[in-house]
Amino acid sequence: MGSVQSPDRQAVQEVEVAVIGCGPVGALTANLLGARGVTTLVVERSAAPHGQPRAFSCDDEAMRIYQQAGLLDEIRDSTIAPPLVEYVNGAGRVFARMALSETDFGYGHAPLRFFDQPRLEHTLRAGLDRFPHVQLSLGTELVGLTQDEDGVSVLLSDVATGQRRTVRARYVLGCDGARSATRAAVRIPLSGASYAEPWLAVSGDVPPDAVLVGDTRFVCDWRRPAFVSPGAGGSYRMEFMLRPGETEDEMRRPETVAALVSPYVDPARFTVTRAVVYTFHHLIAQRWREGRVFLLGDAAHQMPPFMGQGLCSGLRDAANLSWKLSLVLSGAADAAVLDTYETERRPHTVEMARTSVRLGHVFLARNRVAAALRDAALRAVQTIPRVRRFVERFEFKPVPAYRRGLMAGGRRDGAVGTMFPQPRVLVPGAPGERLLDEALGDGFAVLGRAGVDNPLGAWRPGLPVRFVAVHPSGTPLADLPDPSADERPDRVDVVDVDGVLDGWLRRHRAGLVVLRPDRFVFALAAEGGVERAGRELSAALGAPPDGAGEPLPDSPEVTAAPSR
Questions:
Q1: Cα–Cα distances in Å, from 44 out to 158, 414, 481?
Q2: Can you point out the beta strands (E) in 206-295?
Q3: Helix H or strand E segment including 76
Q4: Nearest to residue 456, comparing CAs of 364, 355, 525?
């Protein structure tokens, strides 16, 4: 990497955050920062849209993050939710299945959705147009950076002309993929393993009547494992493991591709949009931060594809780091809060990658005897109802939870550190049912039963927080305060349509729950403990510039959830 030359300071652009890379993770990160008013420059080496359908799937957590970015409708309308995932042997016999249409983890969205990556990237980039303080610089690459106590000097180069310029940023986020220039610039090594088995990934478009297999399938054929599934917008995705001795050139030939896809689609009516050979990795950066430079997505971690969690993990990174950065930049939190990014995200990412590897071992039995034993064993254990439910309801997926980090007590305890559910609610002045996050705002939220006092004025000045008063299911909207006449803009009243919120509070023996902007539980509190909860949060965020927010002594009114 080149080093940053002494710039003419009058020519240096200044931003709060520079995002390197505008794939899905970088574009989503910039949308989240833009929504929080952070002055952001996004740098993308390619001058044109990527145009390749690489990533294919996302989960309910990812959809909730898109929702937080204000892009849910646009993205959801261009995706499909598969009702079923089957594991079949070489003869097409099902030995395990996941009933996704019957699975609801409670976060407001289907557990799995398929999308078209070019369309997704277009939506995410178009979303940046909402924010005059966010700039996208295409055809520009990072060639060097240096740091000091106040910020980062980023040297950029125009790919077409070679002309260089310097940008001064408070923080830099490397969202530039597996071959991250940002990671190289700060000399952070990767550790882990790459797998020798190459795969052919084939994407294409096909009319509905030319689809021969309409379900999502893992074809666990010991001779050639494969994955096949209809995708969004009339697309179809297939991946095939190469056999020993097969070459990339051979596998990409039209006649080879046609033979491979013929059991699943009519090859004469299947238009190939992408056919590439790849190998997968299980790698993680030794650290995700170097001073004011952070790594997100594939720049920080790469995992096998069997859980479809590579992109989702990068989106979780963005959701975790963006709100913390906005608080630090606004002076509402101490910069030490940013250390919790890796503390929270690394263990969950490692667990997700290990689960993907274990699932791959089931998928990739490579001899006839091992495959037959696997099939028989999985069919047998699924005669046990609890085991069958564990498989069918996708319960082996790691739950969204943090072991340690920015939460009451600093570590997970029961509900503290877990993602809060997102049921549907009714809100005065809004037509129909809405997802809960739409009522929570984009900052912290304190949620409790109606009738609890709302002393949020005692919370740290400048800290975005809203009190959500929950009314029982069946409460007429006419009985709720009129929001247009309410002089308390930091309060919103909601009706708990299905009783989910009241049930959650009762189950965890809480009167109030404090939610972070990314909708993870910060703390539980007794009714009347809002002010103390605010002081606990203030202490966790660190002393603000005015020195307010002294730490509290231990209090029974602000606690972690009871252990299960």
A1: 10, 42, 48
A2: 216-220, 226-230, 235-241, 271-278, 281-285, 289-290, 293-295
A3: helix 72-76
A4: 525
Tens digits of residue pLDDT in 198-229 = 899 999 999 999 999 999 999 988 889 999 99
Q: Is 112 left (phi over 0), alpha (psi -120 to 50) or beta?
A: beta
Interatomic CA distance for residues 103 and 112, integer angstroms: 10
DSSP state of 347: H
Coil, strand or helix: which one is 445? strand
Asked if residues 480 and 544 have their Cβ atoms less than 8 Å apart, the reply is: no
The label of the residue with tokens 């006839």 reads 368
Summarised one tens digit per residue, pLDDT across range 35-80 is: 999 999 999 999 988 767 778 899 999 999 999 999 999 999 999 9
Q: Residue with structure tokens 């931003």?
A: 15
Among residues 251, 281, 240, which one has the least CA distance to residue 364? 240
Please state the pTM of the whole predicted model: 0.90
Give the distance, in angstroms, between the CA of residue 191 and the centroid of all CA atoms in the same chain: 22
Where does the pLDDT of residue 336 fall: very low under 50, low under 70, confident under 90, or very high at 90 and above? very high
Residue 384, burial from CB neighbour count under 10 angstroms (0-12, 13-18, 19+):
exposed
d(CA 71, CA 160): 32
